[in-house]
Design goal:
It is built from twelve helices and no strands. The chain has about 300 residues and is mostly helical. The chain has one domain. The longest helix has 28 residues.
């Protein structure tokens, strides 16, 4: 299988996982576990899994101690800051606002790529991003987006999360040129676990774990294993093989998948309008990759 096809399959798998995550994880917080506590659980479980797999898959070592600082920075923006900002922000704003604000992440990736990686923003790349953003905006109901003083703090946190994740996608590229994706992610989640714990301690103590029904445990397991362990590893591998801009462009597919899953789960009808917006998103993502192949 060609490497380019494997990258797309990996990114499509990540989009499928994140799309399903909106439906599966929505009942966990805050009814059973606070946002920060939930973040810690998923980071801890993923850290254990990454380290277990790394025992059998890699013999790499850190030679230059300065690399640990880079691991820490990547963990701050890609694990701790990214997750804490998003889930805590979601508690103060609507799902529509959060979904719309997350569409800024690929734009921030373009900007950071210029300053960190000295990339050039090519015309077709920018056009593809814009087309995909417009399609995603209307698909998730952009007209329902409403900025108000009540949701301001949540909106700001989600926007900072989009910025944080974008910087992580660009910054981690330098580590992925030096180490394998598994080795990098293993260290990121070790640091991430330590960084999240102080924020999660009160949530972890307040939760009544004996009252968690089986479906909540299953949802937590899905988020920890699939949305965190599998998705982060595939994302890192894709960044290693392709550009951060291509990886970020797949963010626009997540609302498409989330919409179709929600339609199936809630027995809603699929309108022609939603199909058209989904096609627009695919065209935008194709243009981003088409430009990459020409380059």
């Amino acid at each position: 299988m060609k490497n380019n096809l494997r990258v797309h399959l990996a990114l499509l798998t990540v989009s499928l996982i994140y799309g399903a995550n909106y439906t599966i994880a929505k009942d966990i917080m805050p009814a059973y576990l606070g946002a920060s506590g939930f973040v810690f659980v998923r980071v801890l479980v993923a850290a254990v899994l990454f380290n277990l797999v790394a025992l059998f898959r890699t013999r790499e070592k850190v030679i230059d101690k300065k690399d640990y600082l880079q691991f820490l920075i990547a963990a701050i923006f890609g694990v701790a800051g990214n997750m804490l900002l998003f889930f805590n922000g979601l508690a103060f704003t609507s799902e529509v606002n959060a979904s719309v604000l997350m569409l800024n992440a690929p734009i921030f990736v373009l900007i950071f790529s210029v300053f960190v990686l000295q990339d050039r923003i090519r015309l077709w790349q920018a056009i593809g991003m814009l087309i995909a953003a417009i399609g995603a905006l209307f698909l998730i109901g952009g007209r329902a987006f409403e900025f108000s003083t009540q949701s301001a703090s949540g909106d700001i946190m989600v926007l900072l999360n989009a910025t944080s994740f974008a910087f992580y996608l660009v910054y981690v590229k330098r580590l992925l040129k030096k180490f394998t994706a598994l080795f990098v992610i293993k260290h990121l989640f070790i640091f991430g676990t330590l960084l999240v714990l102080p924020f999660a301690w009160s949530d972890l103590r307040a939760a009544d774990y004996g009252q968690f029904p089986m479906d909540i445990w299953v949802a937590i397991g899905f988020v920890a294993i699939m949305t965190t362990f599998v998705a982060y590893l595939l994302n890192a591998w894709a960044v290693q093989k392709a550009s951060p801009n291509l990886v970020a462009s797949y963010i626009y597919l997540q609302p498409v998948i989330a919409t179709f899953i929600a339609i199936n789960a809630e027995n809603q009808s699929l309108s022609l309008e939603k199909v058209i917006f989904a096609v627009v998103i695919f065209i935008g993502v194709y243009l981003v990759n088409s430009n990459r192949k020409k380059a």
